[in-house]
Amino acid sequence: MDDTRPQPTPLQADELRNMDRFWRACNYLSAGMIYLRANPLLREPLKPEHIKRRLLGHWGSDPGQSFVLVHLNRVIKQRDLNVIFISGPGHGAPATLAHSYLEGRYSEIYPDRGETEEGMARLFKLFSFPGGIGSHCTPETPGSIHEGGELGYSLSHGYGAAFDNPDLIVTVMIGDGEAETGPLATSWHSNKFLNPARDGAVLPVLHLNGYKIANPTILARIPHEELEALFTGYGYKPWFVEGDEPEKMHQQMAATLDECIDEIRAIQQRARQEGGNVDAQRPRWPMIVLRSPKGWTGPREFGAHKIEGSWRAHQVPIADPATNGKSLKLVEEWLRSYGPETLFDESGRLVAELRALAPEGPRRISANLHANGGALCKALDLPDFAGYAVDVSQPATSYVSPTDVLGQFLRDVMRRNMTSFRVFGPDETASNKLTAIYEASGKTWLAQIVESDRDGGELSADGRVMEMLSEHTLEGWLEGYTLTGRHGLFATYEAFVHVIDSMFNQHAKWLEKAKRELRWRQPVPSLNLLITSLVWRQDHNGFTHQDPGFLDVVTNKSPDVVRIYLPPDANCLLSVADHCLRSRDYVNVIVADKQPHLQYLDMKSAITHCTKGIGIWDWASTDLDHEPDVVMASAGDIPTMEALAAVEILKGLFPDLKIRFVNVVDLFRLMPDSDHPHGLSGRDFDSLFTTDKPVIFNFHSYPSLVHKLTYRRTNHANIHVHGYAEKGNINTPLELAIINGIDRFSLAIDVIDRVHRLRGVGDHAKERLRDQKIRHLDYAHSEGIDSEEIRDWKWAG
Amino acid sequence: MDDTRPQPTPLQADELRNMDRFWRACNYLSAGMIYLRANPLLREPLKPEHIKRRLLGHWGSDPGQSFVLVHLNRVIKQRDLNVIFISGPGHGAPATLAHSYLEGRYSEIYPDRGETEEGMARLFKLFSFPGGIGSHCTPETPGSIHEGGELGYSLSHGYGAAFDNPDLIVTVMIGDGEAETGPLATSWHSNKFLNPARDGAVLPVLHLNGYKIANPTILARIPHEELEALFTGYGYKPWFVEGDEPEKMHQQMAATLDECIDEIRAIQQRARQEGGNVDAQRPRWPMIVLRSPKGWTGPREFGAHKIEGSWRAHQVPIADPATNGKSLKLVEEWLRSYGPETLFDESGRLVAELRALAPEGPRRISANLHANGGALCKALDLPDFAGYAVDVSQPATSYVSPTDVLGQFLRDVMRRNMTSFRVFGPDETASNKLTAIYEASGKTWLAQIVESDRDGGELSADGRVMEMLSEHTLEGWLEGYTLTGRHGLFATYEAFVHVIDSMFNQHAKWLEKAKRELRWRQPVPSLNLLITSLVWRQDHNGFTHQDPGFLDVVTNKSPDVVRIYLPPDANCLLSVADHCLRSRDYVNVIVADKQPHLQYLDMKSAITHCTKGIGIWDWASTDLDHEPDVVMASAGDIPTMEALAAVEILKGLFPDLKIRFVNVVDLFRLMPDSDHPHGLSGRDFDSLFTTDKPVIFNFHSYPSLVHKLTYRRTNHANIHVHGYAEKGNINTPLELAIINGIDRFSLAIDVIDRVHRLRGVGDHAKERLRDQKIRHLDYAHSEGIDSEEIRDWKWAG
């Protein structure tokens, strides 16, 4: 503790006493959730049968979290603040549950857990009980937008919530365990992207609780000077609240919180009076380091072991009260130390003078509408996407960059929604050819700006394009932004979207619970991921930049919440993007490349095609009014072009061959309708893919994914998938296609091999196709580029 | 620049001049690689036909990197140092390639790119050319252990290389773009895990190059005081080398490097003289901040655009010299500014006085054996794993924690290999029940230690168990450790291994290239991942902790380098672990839970079973000498138990039913032998799974993965997989099994449904099984735990 700082005592004796009692009530409930299945108010002596059969839950960080919540209530009431709270420490739900229960919000949502002795008993019982209440701040938790089951994302979620919410203060409690993760460690730099004029404030509270599961934490074990330097270096003004004596700590915390709120308001006022021109000076936002003992106010020791202030307080501090009399006594003493009889009235309700400490209505942290973002969400004002259509008079004869076109649409989406739409990208917005967006808004940047920065997308505090070289931070911001009811799109290199695999998993799980099980949670905007700089055009960047496997991760998540689209051209991309921006409660994954690609469908056809999600392209098929000999299917831009080129080759070689061309935009169409709401019925699938003809499927990603989705289809044994076979290097696009077998020649050869009546008669043709492969490879290897014939290939019709 | 610091000038005029020339030679080669396909020494005027057809490569960070390399050479020679260099900035290969070429090492490995004009021309041509040389520090790059295709891992790789290499200095060049990533931001804290007595040193050089692809970097745009505070806060002593005048910068860098090496040696000497007791005081290791212009020494501007010192220098600074005379002239001027005719002799070889600047033999950074770790690798001294066997007199009648047993084996592995084996875990070694390891060695910890830390696995500078709450850092350390020839194992919660999906992808790609294409790279120890705290026992931790999908990511990588094992019990786990610790050049993924589980096989049977990787368990089968009615298959511990329990139920219901029980340890056995070296032939697969009988497969992970691996098998249409269906909450283990359908009752019902002759006759049994499910769920929901009957179920035989 910094003892040179004078110790102000802003709390009057009564106020302090009641705040401490409210805090003790929180702590009592937290401990009760972990231990009790009956006798919730300890109206009788504690007996083994009152103890839960299975003791689950995490005590360690609860008192520290409740401490902060109690103090937040004070400033919310005093100043009529708009505050939400994000609980970063793992398994810290008892604190937030207790607080929301004491605020009355919990019982409003879950009337079976009312503010009565019986309701409290039920809350206790259901906590960490099968089918009951989770030990993280799950979607079921009032006031939560951050579950915290996986650590590392609290602070980026907090910043995401604060963007474009000028009135909001997001308090983010960060566990010192969580603070060791990479995503958290870099998310401190989010302060370079927060505009005090336009955005709300984030108040990080680093909880130096001292221990993780079984180890001390790094930040709790470095000298004070290093800790202070670290947060100064991150650009904050750190305040320290350190100690273990409740009375002193209450005064310290109250004083510190007053200072921090004053600073926040001063920063905002300064920026807002200056009319938003804050480029000149990035503010040093306050943050708080709260150093308190792990398991504060819990048992000090048990036998020879220290508990309070050690890792032993992390989970259940006393493990065996049901079977060990000494333990039972200790648990009872601990629980009674909070004086439940002085905190709750006869009916089991918090006494009136403590209830009065909580804010009212939606000012309660647990009832703040920002934490149920769907309730505040407004639909985007979208321009007509058809207005951005690329002219396609003949299919497959012109080249356009799909993301370039999308950028123009997004530019106008942004212009119409300047406080509720943002685009995110890891320093790749320009690389991914979404540059048109900069015409609507520059890049957010609160760090130093120099003259030459004007050259290229402009940097300013007012920018709405978010670029930081951290996929974790961007994804966290976007999750926080959408969970508080706003809209966005995150564009990233395909290979490196794997960086956020785990964040995607966690967000999908959140959406599923919220959507399926919680009627009180309003639908939130979907999280839109644009995956670009795709494998097939990462030929020049090499093997490390070639990984289309994110789709496998996505298909493992619940069909209720995930969607995958592979628009083959710019008009389809526009149609898909419009659909995704309107949708709610999904993760939409859009796979579209940035390079110039062939355009296939005019806008009307594109809309029809994307609405169906899968369909026969008559213009590319030769089986009209006939049963096909073979189905050529494709999903993805380059695979579609190669598949068409193969069809053209085959048409030249075998004019009588009946080829049906099928293109897939909505990948889940391939699944049975019993397994996915977008799935095709068996009859519809069979009518497209036949029940017995060979299907050559040219796929964007790893081939096995198509098998994973179609293995139950009638004709599955005849579906032969070409896709990325994990082969790459520095290549040309054609070479990369050839070594993985998705090129036109390999496809044509496969058709010849699979269509019975071509066997034998096609041998000579196969030979010529193999020669062509070699000829084109030779050219690429001598010139370093693909031949014009390949690069500028067009459908001859 | 800190102008208050006096500016020493350690370099004599001649030395400075030659070092500058060597640097210019590096820069010349870097630029040459990007632009030239002929006329490599500019012996004739530059013409369009000398320019590559496709300009690829990244100029921006090359001069800064070469600058550091030139200065490293000086101190290596002067002090006979053992130094490797890790290149963090993306696409920075031209610098390291140039340096290794000038050191002669490149031509030793690739004689077709010799130290002649012709060799240089070939080097230039092949760079970023199809089938040629990558633009990252790929495995093909001499001296590299870090490709840097994906950003964020340079520093953790560097620390991994330094552990247990007391003599080694690992210089890690960190791009200021990379520094924004989460993994990099937390890896600075690795200094709390480096023991100066026993480990080598890491010298980070943060390259404040100023710009990423299209944006300034955060760290280049915060005030000097913040930057200094940040690294002080991270626990380093930062040195600043800032400027753009080569002469001054050389003197500054030389002086700074001298100081840093002096500090490193002083820290090490102090620690080593004190006999390794460094617990008392964590050293403040030096680090360097090098602020130099992006594209330093390149063209200053082009038209109205600033190039040097801007993001426009990131990649190819002048885009069109082949078609634009003005551009061609500028490129020629730029290249000639280095004076190639003064740097290379008639034959094209670096002139002798510059060659003399490079160290010799394996002291060359590009030839250092630590960067070809297999060359230094010694096999582990392994105790006989059979000595740790669990006694299994009757299959499936006793419960043991598999990881607890493994911990005992690993303890002794560690004891026998105290300088070449480490265990890594994100604060979960104890939670994952590997606590026996602490008997061999405590946990590495160089931060503050307090008295109560003795309570639990001991913390000390000498510990060899690495625990930090960052999966990224741990994985990075282990990759660095194995790539430099040492051995290790990383144990982590199953759900959160997704955090390192992308790191896994990148490491697998590295291994594949090194193994398949580079004979000069010696095999390195496999990277062993123990995935534990498995989905089926994360019932109490809830939905966020349930994600077995990492295996899907793994199966997308090359069969040459990935292995997946699901040992069903402790003895199998021992056998598998022994196998993995002996192996080279793989990523081995071992899936084994930490909870007490039924034990099935005695050691002898376990060895046989694991050697085969898949097999029939006769003792659990009822089809002896008969064709089975049904095959019950399993992979994973809990799925195996439930499958056995189902068999027992079915035996009771239908004594005549012929059930074959198959267990899978080595998951890739399921694949065709044409697709994976571990794959079973069609005949072997069919002999196990039949060609027409129903197969009920109870699987650890998502069911579709089994289909992905088996879709080409004869009997695939009859394989019915039960696995995780993305359904979870706070549950009991049985409840979790039931809602996902992997429980004994659901399996038995499925058998009744699938076996023709049971249809109808089994209806009553199905009814009873459904009742049993409900009864057990009711018990769990009232008591919060599973009934003893379920929890303590044993095979009755």
Helical region count of chain A?
A: 25
Shape of chain A: elongated
Give the end-to-end Cα distance of chain A, rounded to a whole number of Å.
79 Å
Fourth CATH level, the homologous superfamily of the largest domain in chain A: Thiamin diphosphate (ThDP)-binding fold, Pyr/PP domains
Q: The CATH topology of the largest domain in chain A is what? A: Rossmann fold
Class derived from helix and strand content of chain A:
alpha/beta
Low-confidence stretches of chain A at least 5 residues in length (pLDDT < 50)? none
Oligomer: homodimer
What is the CATH class name of the largest domain in chain A? Alpha Beta
DSSP strand count of chain A: 22
Cofactor (chains A, B): thiamine diphosphate
Organism (chains A, B): Paraburkholderia caribensis
Keywords (chains A, B): Lyase, Thiamine pyrophosphate
Domain Xylulose 5-phosphate/Fructose 6-phosphate phosphoketolase C-terminal (chains A, B): 594-795
Give the structure's gist in a few sentences.
Chains A, B: Belongs to the XFP family. The structure is a homodimer of 797-residue chains. With 797 residues, the first copy, chain A, is α/β, with parallel strands linked by helices.
Overview of this structure, please?
- The structure is a homodimer of 797-residue chains.
- Chain A has 797 residues and is α/β, with parallel strands linked by helices.
- The first copy, chain A, has three domains: 21-372, 3-Layer(aba) Sandwich (Rossmann fold), CATH 3.40.50; 386-598, Thiamin diphosphate (ThDP)-binding fold, Pyr/PP domains (Rossmann fold, 3-Layer(aba) Sandwich), CATH 3.40.50.970; 614-791, Rossmann fold, CATH 3.40.50.920.
- Chain A is built from 25 helices and 22 strands.
- In chain A, the strands form six sheets. Chain A has a six-stranded parallel sheet, sandwiched between helices.
- In chain A, α1 (13-35) crosses α3, α6 crosses α14 (471-483) and α13 (402-416) packs parallel to α17 (570-582).
- The longest helix of chain A is centred in the first third of the chain and has 28 residues, at 246-273.
- Chain A is elongated and about 95 Å long.
- Chain A starts with 12 loop residues before the first helix and ends in a 6-residue tail after the last helix.
- Chains A and B meet through α7, α8, β7, α14 and α15 of A and α7, α8, β7, α14 and α15 of B.
